[in-house]
Amino acid sequence: MLVEVCANSLESALVAEHAGADRIELCSELAVGGLTPSYGLLKAVKEQVSIPVHVLIRPRSSDFTYSDDEFTIMMTDIALCKELGFDGIVSGVLMKDFTLDVERTRKLKLAADDLKFTFHRAFDWVVDPFKTLKQLEHIHVNYILSSGQQKSAYLGIDLLASLNNQSVTVQIMPGSGINSENVAMFKENGFNAVHLSGTSMIKSLPKSPLISMNSSNFLSDDYLAVTQLENIKSVVTKVK
């Protein structure tokens, strides 16, 4: 069984390799489901990690429906990953009605060329997972990362198993909440790959800072934080 580790830093990637992982999905910001890693992180991982690395292509948090400019950024990031010699891409696009954006996902797959392509957990939002499976097979993606549309793959095992049984060319890769206590269940149910982060929160400072830099106001699946013209103009007007 292939074990893919979602690594959010160079340190995490090196630990995953040392522990015997088969592959890494490289990203940043696990708290929002992962974002595209920086150039510096991409370069460092490519230089220091020898196992295959797939890179998450997701330009921002919140939903999976992107503007034209955001989509251009995604295509540029894929080109960079190809140039740097990575092994795969993890990405995908949805419509606002939670159906697959077939055209844009196909464009991402074509941009990835011969790199492996994983459709990420945007799959867990789609209204018809079985129809989406067939659409993704037609696009020729290699993997679908999913929790079975539940908070954890353990809870979503029934849907995951059904998808795995119906899949012809795409490999269903369970992810979310997988650990040493439940991973055997996925192997017993016929899955050939699993995805996990294996993280723990490690205290990095001797005491808590004066104020927090985290803001729950920016954490949302259906709202975007966007700079507003009038907010900036009103400030500029008062000081210029």
What would you note in describing this structure?
With 240 residues, the protein is of the alpha/beta class. It has one domain: TIM Barrel (Alpha-Beta Barrel), CATH 3.20.20.380. The protein has eight helices and eight strands, in the order βαβαβαβαβαβαβαβα. It has an eight-stranded parallel sheet. The protein is globular. The N and C termini lie far apart (62 Å).
How are the SSEs placed, and which strands pair?
Blueprint: E1 2-7, H1 10-18, E2 23-26, H2 39-48, E3 53-56, H3 68-84, E4 88-91, H4 102-112, E5 116-119, H5 129-139, E6 143-146, H6 157-166, E7 171-174, H7 183-188, E8 193-196, H8 229-239
| N-to-C series of helices and strands | EHEHEHEHEHEHEHEH
CATH architecture: Alpha-Beta Barrel
Unreliably modeled segments: none
Q: Structural class, from secondary structure content?
A: alpha/beta
Beta-strand residue percentage? 5-15%
Total helices: the number is: 8
Total of domains? 1
Features of this protein?
240 residues; alpha/beta; TIM Barrel; eight-stranded parallel beta sheet
Outline:
The protein has 240 residues and is α/β, with parallel strands linked by helices.
